[in-house]
Structures are given as structure tokens and as C-alpha cells.
Amino acid sequence: MSYLVGLDTGGTFTDFVLFDPETQELAVYKFPFTPEDPSSALFEELKKLLSNKNAGSDQVTALTHGATVATNAVLQGQLPDKIQAILRRLFPESLVSLSSKALREFREYERFSTTAINADLLPSL
Hints:
Elements: E1 3-9, E2 13-20, E3 25-32, H1 38-52, E4 60-67, H2 68-75, H3 78-90, H4 99-102, H5 108-121
Parallel strand pairs: 1-4
Antiparallel strand pairs: 1-2, 2-3
């Protein structure tokens, strides 16, 4: 028996999906998110889920991880601001242009081209 595992770490919960390709059984689980140590909590919960199926980690043939908590940080502007602060501290003589500040549009071309123009103009402003 083998399992495909999908998991997503969110701000409130961590969601797991176990799929058995042989039986087509799909099981969905939800656990409270543990911000103090997300990775160890993920592994502990996964071990419990597999144990409930009388399975071990060697029976996981694929694992996919999504990070809604990281996506939310980006969407809320938290992560880019932190990165900008770090870059300014490490390279105080450099100008930092964030695409999230230059254009809130979620289109790759528009956001990239606007940020490139912004970065090019920063020294003259």
C-alpha cells in the first residue's frame, strides 16, 4: 500500500490529505497550526495519521506542501517589507525596489516591467 500526501500550513490550521491510489480512498484531516515549530508538528501529525492507517513513512510515495501562511504574509505585504528591511541593513548604499510596492497588480509582466522602471528611476529621484 502507498499514499500520496498533500498538506497545507495555514495561519489557523494545517490540513492533510491522504490518498491511497490502490483503493481510491481519500482521507482529510485538520489540525491546529503550531507557529512556534511548524515543521516538527507537521511530521508528528503525519506520523500519527500514517500510524492510524497502519502505515509508515516509507509508504508515502509523494508529498506536496502548500504554505497558505506564507502566501498570506506576501499578500498582506508582511514578507516583502521584512525582506526590504534586511536588504537595506545588509546593503545600506543600495536602492531596493519592491514589486509589491511599485504595483499591486498580480500579473507577472505588468508587475515586473513596472518594478524594473521604478528601479531604474530610483537613483534620479
